[in-house]
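Help needed: design a sequence for this.
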């Protein structure tokens, strides 16, 4: 889901700035690539691909190619400014511009499904929330794969390795806002606390003191237990967005063994032979457009597919790896019958609950939307000093909560939360008006209590529409189709009302806005949710992890080392491998698992070198 924020004045929006010419290892034309083969070819520069490409190219004897369908991220000021996150998509040049099928759980709505088409992928257009998930989330990955290396404790070296926690841009005292020992300080991914104070910050903290049983304070949501309200941690550093591109690609383009090809889409995986009767897929076919020439390259060691939750299963199926019935429907020859490819698609349902407020004496994001002079002042402040409103990501506070243990729904439905430290729903507390369906306002002040179902049980799928890689697949995340998810969303909305009834909000909150004002009974709240809910844009699970062994229904597409079952020479390292969505924004989990997988690939390469 990409919110519609009341539009920032056009005069305050800058698309790009002058940058130096790209270094020699960033290519836009496949014919200009200097090598005829590479040791590793990585497809996709979202959260996972750049981690793999960067870490493998640390070995100067290894040649690595990273292929990205989108544009260069460097110099795009709208991408760099944290506050502009809500304006980067959908329907922009750096967005794939996907849409869903008609959603039964959302009153039949077809919703836009933004994914980044740019170096950094969706880490270049997301809301920059850095939330790892709970210890239970990772322990569940270990349990379902049978590999303890995916457990919370075993992943601690990679949690610290990828992160560079730093002080916020405004330099405020952060004592009590996070736990330093839970964070890395020398990794490539910059993380920080809110860079700009808001007038509602003190009200949020006061609520945790006035209603501690339901809304307790959480010092650090990334220390293993997420529950409670705490200060949001964001992938922002020095007042600018941090993406996988700024962290793992741009600073390393001078490596002679690391080539990056942009504006180029992978169209098929090529079978390069068999090894002991097992098909090997070490070739990649690609082109710059539907009508452009096709190119092909082979990897001497591995192809790493990191094209995301939509393109990864599409490429697998187009290459003959997927459910036989789905492939035969389009006349695609099955090379490997892998029933789970394209299935298990799920996401966090998300809803913006808007309240009208009395903001006298304070400044909100609505003031930026409604006052072009103020917006220009803030843009100048960011441009010259990397300070001010524009350093702010979507929310200064975030909360994670569980249903009461005696909730009626938990007696009839399976609890999809990973464990007692993992939430059922979350709050993002946004100091202004946001709406996913295009409504905007030209006056007034608002508070948006954004709720999301964090452990959903609804499951959808992705299917092919044709044998052309240029045709989008059918995407059905089946949002809000399970009784559990409907119940959790309803209860999360009711929880926002209880939170805002705390004394801390006296004199500030006037009342609910729009459809929310007429949603009082459970039935009315559920109808309101169906009409106004969209996606948090966290799709995953379409090439899920499972235990080692042959592909089979419910057993996953990849093993715990992320090698594709039933083939040689191919791995998947992106959101599609996450069998269950973490109760968190998934970018951190992908960074962490990708760091681990890079070491597994290095170890496998070392083993091959030493075999007689």
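Sure. Designed sequence:
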């Amino acid at each position: 889901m990409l919110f519609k924020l009341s539009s920032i004045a056009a005069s305050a929006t800058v698309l790009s700035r002058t940058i130096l010419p790209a270094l020699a290892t960033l290519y836009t034309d496949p014919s200009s690539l200097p090598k005829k083969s590479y040791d590793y070819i990585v497809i996709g520069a979202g959260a996972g691909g750049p981690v793999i490409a960067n870490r493998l190219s640390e070995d100067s004897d290894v040649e690595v190619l990273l292929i990205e369908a989108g544009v260069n991220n460097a110099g795009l000021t709208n991408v760099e400014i944290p506050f502009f996150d809500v304006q980067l998509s959908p329907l922009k040049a750096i967005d794939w511009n996907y849409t869903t099928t008609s959603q039964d759980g959302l009153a039949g709505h077809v919703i836009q499904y933004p994914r980044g088409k740019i170096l950094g992928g969706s880490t270049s257009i997301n809301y920059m929330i850095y939330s790892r998930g709970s210890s239970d989330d990772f322990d569940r990955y270990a349990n379902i794969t049978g590999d303890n290396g995916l457990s919370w404790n075993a992943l601690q070296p990679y949690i610290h390795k990828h992160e560079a926690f730093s002080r916020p841009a405004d330099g405020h005292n952060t004592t009590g806002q996070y736990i330093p020992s839970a964070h890395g300080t020398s990794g490539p991914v910059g993380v920080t606390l809110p860079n700009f104070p808001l007038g509602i910050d003190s009200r949020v903290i006061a609520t945790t003191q006035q209603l501690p049983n339901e809304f307790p304070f959480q010092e650090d949501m990334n220390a293993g237990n997420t529950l409670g309200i705490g200060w949001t941690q964001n992938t922002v550093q020095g007042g600018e967005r941090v993406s996988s591109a700024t962290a793992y690609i741009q600073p390393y383009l001078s490596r002679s063994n690391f080539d990056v090809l942009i504006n180029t889409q992978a169209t098929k995986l090529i079978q390069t032979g068999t090894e002991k009767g097992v098909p090997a897929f070490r070739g990649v076919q690609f082109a710059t457009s539907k009508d452009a020439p096709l190119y092909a390259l082979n990897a001497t060691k591995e192809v790493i597919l990191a094209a995301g939750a939509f393109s990864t299963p599409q490429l697998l199926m187009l290459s003959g790896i997927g459910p036989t019935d789905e492939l035969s429907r389009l006349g695609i020859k099955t090379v490997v019958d892998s029933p789970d490819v394209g299935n298990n698609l799920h996401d966090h349902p998300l809803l913006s609950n808007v309240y009208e407020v009395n903001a006298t004496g304070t400044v909100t994001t609505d003031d930026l939307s409604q006052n072009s002079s103020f917006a220009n002042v803030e843009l100048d402040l960011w441009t010259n000093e990397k300070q001010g409103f524009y350093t702010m990501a979507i929310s200064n506070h975030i909360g994670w909560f569980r249903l009461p243990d005696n909730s009626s729904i938990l007696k009839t439905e399976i609890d999809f939360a990973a464990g007692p430290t993992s939430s059922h729903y979350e709050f993002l507390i946004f100091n202004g008006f946001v709406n996913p369906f295009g409504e905007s306002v030209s006056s007034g002040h608002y508070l948006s209590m954004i709720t999301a179902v964090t452990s959903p049980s609804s499951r959808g799928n992705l299917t092919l529409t044709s044998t052309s890689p240029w045709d989008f697949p059918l995407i059905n995340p089946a949002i809000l189709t399970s009784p559990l998810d409907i119940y959790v969303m309803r209860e999360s909305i009711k929880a926002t009302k209880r939170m805002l009834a705390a004394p801390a909000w006296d004199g500030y909150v006037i009342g609910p806005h729009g459809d929310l004002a007429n949603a009082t009974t459970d039935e009315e709240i559920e109808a309101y949710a169906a009409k106004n809910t969209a996606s948090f844009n966290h799709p995953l699970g379409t090439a899920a992890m499972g235990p080692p062994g042959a592909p089979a229904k419910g057993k996953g597409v990849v093993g715990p080392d992320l090698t594709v079952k039933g083939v040689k020479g191919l791995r998947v390292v992106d959101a599609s491998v996450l069998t269950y969505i973490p109760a968190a924004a998934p970018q951190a989990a992908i960074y962490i698992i990708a760091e681990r997988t890079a070491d597994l690939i290095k170890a496998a390469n070392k083993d091959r070198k030493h075999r007689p």
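The two ends are 53 Å apart (CA to CA).
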